[in-house]
């Protein structure tokens, strides 16, 4: 008689941990986003930069906040700064490029107001950044682990 496969007891715990981590990421992102949007609005409304350049300047300012808080609070990473910083920079650079592309297409191509365009860009980039940082920037270094299951000897 074959036994039914039982659900992995840690799957629910892993999903709950992922949800908590994403909520922490969202909280940190709100702080970084406040800086990002403040720079964006100030630069556009004072006439110092067009919306695309202002969005990119805001993105960079927010990235500084994001790195420090995410490293400490969201991912609790032990990865050395020398390694994590360049990884963070690469993931952020891709997010920067996505921000530029989305802002340029929506404001210059479709004539959308800059604040609405930035909201859409933020929605896309937040998921890219979370996954990139979780899976690569701040991930734990691989450690060989023995499997929970030992193959049967026949």
From TrEMBL:
Quote the cellular component terms of the Gene Ontology held in the record: plasma membrane
Q: Name one GO biological process term.
A: polysaccharide biosynthetic process
Its subcellular locations are: Membrane
Any Pfam family from its record, for instance, is GtrA_DPMS_TM
Q: Where in the numbering of this chain does the GtrA/DPMS transmembrane domain appear? A: 25-138
The question of whether Membrane is a record keyword is answered with yes
Which residue ranges traverse the bilayer?
Answer: 21-44, 56-73, 85-106, 112-131
What InterPro entries does this protein's entry cite?
A: GtrA_CellWall_Glycosyl (IPR051401), GtrA_DPMS_TM (IPR007267)
Q: How does it sit in the membrane?
A: Multi-pass membrane protein
- State where it is primarily located: membrane
Per UniProt, which keywords does this protein have?
Membrane, Transmembrane, Transmembrane helix
PANTHER family attached to this UniProt entry: PROPHAGE BACTOPRENOL-LINKED GLUCOSE TRANSLOCASE HOMOLOG
The similarity annotation says: Belongs to the GtrA family.
Query: What name appears for this protein in its UniProt entry?
Result: Polysaccharide synthesis protein GtrA
User: What is the organism of origin for this protein?
Assistant: Methylobacterium aquaticum
Taxonomic lineage from the root:
Bacteria, Pseudomonadati, Pseudomonadota, Alphaproteobacteria, Hyphomicrobiales
């Amino acid at each position: 008689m074959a036994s039914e496969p039982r659900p992995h007891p840690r799957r629910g715990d892993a999903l709950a941990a992922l949800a908590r981590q994403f909520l922490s990421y969202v909280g940190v992102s709100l702080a970084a986003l406040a800086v990002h949007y403040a720079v964006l609005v100030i630069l556009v409304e004072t006439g110092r930069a067009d919306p695309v350049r202002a969005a990119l300047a805001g993105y960079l300012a927010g990235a500084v906040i994001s790195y420090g808080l995410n490293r400490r609070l969201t991912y609790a990473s032990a990865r050395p700064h020398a390694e994590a910083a360049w990884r963070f920079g690469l993931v952020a650079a891709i997010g920067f490029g996505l921000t530029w592309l989305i802002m340029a297409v929506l404001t210059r191509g479709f004539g959308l107001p800059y604040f609405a365009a930035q909201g859409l860009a933020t929605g896309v980039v937040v998921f890219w950044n979370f996954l990139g940082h979780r899976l690569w920037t701040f991930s734990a270094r691989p450690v060989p682990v023995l499997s929970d299951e030992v193959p049967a000897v026949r």
